[in-house]
Design goal:
By secondary structure, this protein is an alpha/beta fold. It is built from four helices and six strands. It is globular.
Length: 184
């Protein structure tokens, strides 16, 4: 099976309310996880565009729902197949250097987006492999399951561990969340 290559990526819009979401029926892939887990960095890496999504060493840099338009292509036998979708960068949950009021506001608009977006096709939940799953990670995963959303768990920061530690942590995540190999 041929894989897709992202051939074009651009910032589309920022939103905190439904009326600010992009118009049209473009499929969306959302990136969710704790603050500073690497959501924006992953979006930049996927499209090979270092400065598309803003990144910071300080947790809580992303404070809105940011939509990025991705155009992807894969080569089939006869001709290329192209698709457009939105990569949706969401604020992190958990620790961030901001007020409790801001965290509650972020949580509210994230919940509304996840519960109401009719174009959301996949939620990529990023988790830091260096740590055991935290209660907030487990709660988030269960909430997404209850919403009936398709979920892919992405373990980040594996470059900071030995191969043995990565294997051990991956097994822990698979057991905790009941995941198969293709889900992680």
């Amino acid at each position: 099976m041929a894989s897709y290559d992202i051939i074009k990526a651009a910032y589309a819009t920022t939103a905190v309310r439904r009326d600010q979401y992009p118009e049209g029926s473009v499929p969306e892939v959302a990136f969710l996880g704790r603050s500073n887990v690497g959501k924006s960095s992953l979006i930049n890496s996927l499209c090979n565009h270092r400065g598309l999504a803003r990144v910071s060493g300080a947790p809580g840099k992303t404070q809105t729902i940011n939509f990025y338009s991705f155009q992807a292509k894969r080569q089939l036998e006869d001709e290329p197949e192209r698709h457009t979708y939105y990569a949706v960068d969401l604020p992190g949950y958990g620790f961030a250097r901001t007020s409790k009021g801001n965290k509650e506001q972020w949580s509210a608009f994230i919940c509304k987006y996840m519960e109401n977006s009719q174009y959301l096709k996949l939620v990529c939940v990023l988790m830091d492999i260096r740590h055991a799953p935290m209660e907030s990670d487990i709660d988030c995963y269960q909430w997404l399951l209850n919403l009936g959303l398709p979920i892919m768990v992405i373990l980040t920061k594996s470059d900071k561990l030995s191969k043995g530690a990565v294997a051990s942590q991956k097994a822990l995540y698979k057991k905790t969340f009941g995941l198969r190999d293709e889900q992680i």
